[in-house]
Amino acid sequence: MPPVSPDPATNSPAPFLIQKERTRFFGLTLDECIKAFFGGNATVAVIVLGLITFFLFREGADFFRLNNNGLTVYRQAGLEYVDIMRQEEQDHTALTRYLFDIRIKAFKKMVDAPMTAARKEKEAAMEALNKLEQSSASVTQLAGPNGPDRLPESPELVEAKGRVAAAEKSIQEIVAEANAALSGFDDFSYAYGDAVVPVRGLVSELTEAATAIKQKATIADDRAIERQQYLDAGLTEKAAEVQVDDIDYGTEVKALTGTLPFYKEEITTFGDELNRIVADLPELPVKGFEPRLERFRELTHEYVAGIPANIKRLEEWDYTKPVAFSRAFTTFIFGTDWLTASFWQDWYGVVPLFVGSLMVSVIALFIAVPLGVGSAIYVNQIASVREQRLIKPFIEFISAIPSVVLGFFGIAVLGQALRALSQMEAMSWVPGFPYAERLNALTAGCLLALIAVPTIFTLAEDALNNVPRSFKEASYALGATRLQTIIRIIAPASLSGIVSAVLLGLGRVIGETMVVLLCAGNRIAIPDFTKGITALVQPVHTMTGIIAQEMGEVVQGSIHYRALFVVGLLLFLIALFINFLAQKIVRKYRISVG
Fold first, then answer.
1. What ranges in 41-78 are assigned the alpha helix state H?
2. How many CA atoms lie within 13 Å of 349's alpha carbon, on the beta-carbon side?
3. CB of 588 within 8 A of CB of 368?
4. Which uninterrupted H or E stretch holds 24?
5. How far apart are the first and last CA of the chain?
6. What count of other Cβ atoms lies within 10 Å of the Cβ of residue 382?
7. What are phi and psi for residue 437, nearest 5 degrees?
8. How far from 308 is each of 104, 303, 333, 536, 586, CA to CA, in Å?
């Protein structure tokens, strides 16, 4: 291209080459502004992430100091000492429940067959009675207003009522006979349960004494805080009026430790009594429970054998021993109790909440992964264009449904439907069926699966789209069928994206709040996994649910308030780790098309 000649008159470039000056904002052109805006998204994300992390740490960090102070008072006031004694009583209660469970199962085995026949007889009699009563009412209506108000009962009606009464009497007799046959076992159970009464009485008295010591410590702490607040405000005269009593824990605790000789005598007598009682186990009127009873005897012997070790713990207990700061962390991370506003001692153990969150998430993924991934493969590889236009919007629309609406659906429809399904006789073979709790981990997990499906479907389909078309064409060229191509070529090639979709779906459901708060049952306890799959239909509580449920009721700045922020921090770190892991998998196993 020849060079442009300048205008001879002005010695300047030709007019058609002069560009109009661009509009600038803060010294930047429009292109530079757009580049800065979109290019700064990463910076904004990092800043927001940092602010969230800082906020959670700031509000929750003081929890561990407050928790350590609470554990220190727990020891100094003697509550820890009394809890060692209470543990003996609680272990005995657990053994009593084991015995009661044997009784329930034996009773059920005794009455199942005859009760089933009696109930069928009653249902047949009731059905015949209803038909006869309806027929009698119809005849009365046909008689008109001049007819009698009530016709005399026919012999058939009298007979039907007699059948119903006989069936009800038969059911009562079956129950009475079973209870009479188990009377000897009941006497054994009562004797075993009542053996702990003297120990329970002593522990109850010591509980009241330890509670009184803790109450004094709480009042002293409250007054110290009040006085410090006056001093911070410059009100020295008001601060001087607040009297803070010094507590002599040594003197106070002697009232507890001084009962140790008497406790030794009572607990030793109690152990001997248990050994005497289980020496002669009762015989049940049904067979098959002998191993359970023998196991009960072994558990009782083990329990009694552990009493000396418990006494030694009481003898070695020292209220002046400092509480390690690490215990404030371990009681939270590994604690199995979340107990607040207790007259005795508050415990903040996150394990039952974490297990509840993990359980409903696993149930959700168990349902959502096959549905989400399967539908993504079908839509991407098999469905026609018309089917794609129909299926994709409907699946993606699920994510637009408010979670609180899904929670209402779970309470009113799904929970009731699943419970009714479990009570059908045809479903009695399913472990855990029938069950009584309408709101449980299974109900919450099914709804969370509905929430996770759109996330997994969308990301899995994107992963399938990223598989080079040449892979599919090469497979077809070698003679593979469409199904073989999907299973052996397309799915393995997009596996990293599918795994990432599953992980992001997990992050989506583990952070869900309203559904689990409304439908999980909100029981703060670790499910009984010894019952196998039955644990899936037990109520649970989750980390998100506990925050939403209790945050509005706690006092700002209290240990309970701080504990909820630490739960939120833990939940935040879990979600962050899941998303980070998903990104690492995608980057590491990304297909190169170069």
1. 41-60, 63-76
2. 18
3. no
4. strand 24-25
5. 37
6. 12
7. -75, 120
8. 33, 10, 30, 39, 58
Residue with tokens 């191509």: 485
Contact 502/369 with Cβ under 8 angstroms?
Answer: yes
In whole angstroms, what is the distance from residue 350 CA to residue 340 CA? 13
Which two tokens mark 161? 């009522």
Report CA 550 to chain centroid distance, whole Å.
Answer: 15
Residue (of 385, 585, 593, 382) closest to 486 by Cα position: 382
Number of H helices, E strands in the chain: 25, 4
Q: Which long-range contacts (CB under 8 A, 24 or more apart) does 127-136 make?
A: 128/160, 128/163, 129/157, 129/160, 129/161, 129/163, 129/164, 132/156, 132/157, 132/160, 133/157
Any idea of the CA torsion for 508, 511, 514, 518, to the nearest 10 degrees? 100
Identify the residue whose tokens are 């039952």.
Answer: 352
Residue 527, preceding bond cis, omega within 30 degrees? no
DSSP 464-489: HHTS-HHHHHHHHHTT--HHHHIIII
Provide the percentage of residues in the chain whose pLDDT is more than 90: 47
The 10s digit of each residue's pLDDT in 55-97 is 888 989 899 999 999 999 999 999 999 999 999 999 999 999 9
- Supply 101's token pair: 């469970």
* Structure confidence at residue 222 as a pLDDT band (50, 70, 90): confident
Ramachandran quadrant class, 235 (left: phi over 0; alpha: psi -120 to 50; beta: rest): beta
Give the pTM. 0.81
